[in-house]
Structure prediction request, 180 residues.
Amino acid sequence: MKKKPKEIKIKKSIEETTPEVRRIQGDYEITYEDKQKEMQHFYVEIRGSLLKDATILSTYSTVDGAFQSLIRYTVLEDAEKFKRVHLKGATIHPDGTVKEFDSELQLPKTTVCDACKIIFNVACAVGCGVGIAVLCVLAGITTIVGGILCAAVAGAVCWFISEYGCNPGAEYACTQLGYC
Prediction:
């Protein structure tokens, strides 16, 4: 059984942007409810624009090993209150299994509760194996209302999904996690 994260802090984050690519890498320190700590490393490379079309390559290293993902991200519609995107790709897990995904999502643009639901829906569409940083990138969120880090919400959402799956739905999960 996975442990529930209590706090997630970005220990190091480096971003490099050129006309061709945006690279984000760094380390998270996760403190669990039992006070144990774990460091996780992420590397994300984005080619193209998250405003239209992008290809995202990521490596997410945990105590279980490295997860690698390749994602094709396409904005289908960008309205005032939501963005509709198509995500297609695959994640290779440390044990060599591959999870493929092909989903269309509507992502609202608003509160902590909505941000939690967005992250939940993205995580259920692509899996938490893509990594916390990538979930935040795909959701288009870095900080949430009130300065809450997206990583903290994504970590809690991934814990919930590992315990209960995606069937309870975003509304229930985010209410149980205290974000709604």
Observations:
- The chain has a mean pLDDT of 87.
- The two ends are 25 Å apart (CA to CA).
- The longest helix spans residues 112-126.
- The CA atoms of residues 46 and 56 lie 5 Å apart.
